[in-house]
Design goal:
It is a single chain. The protein has about 80 residues and is an alpha+beta fold. The chain is about 25% helix and about 35% strand. The strands form 2 sheets. The chain has a two-stranded antiparallel sheet. The chain has a two-stranded antiparallel sheet with strand order 2-3. The protein is extended, with a radius of gyration of 20 Å.
Length: about 80
Amino acid sequence: DSGYGSVTLSLWLLEWDKDVGDYVRKRNTQPLIDHAKSTQGTVEVGGGPWRDAWIVSSKMSRPLKWMVRLPYTIRNVFKRAESAK
């Protein structure tokens, strides 16, 4: 497993195809997002195949949870200050 995965994403508009009975790419359209790249992906080596939804829960220590929430807390403080003006 690694936190250094690279990903390239293209996102296409879908439409329902009665003949296929599933969603397919809408014909004669450009992608909504084309070749967006990021290096902030995580990858798993081995395991799978993952056919079902992967649902997991975790526990986090209080100090770590506080640190994870800190950027959102700061953002909300600034949002409240802006709306109070």
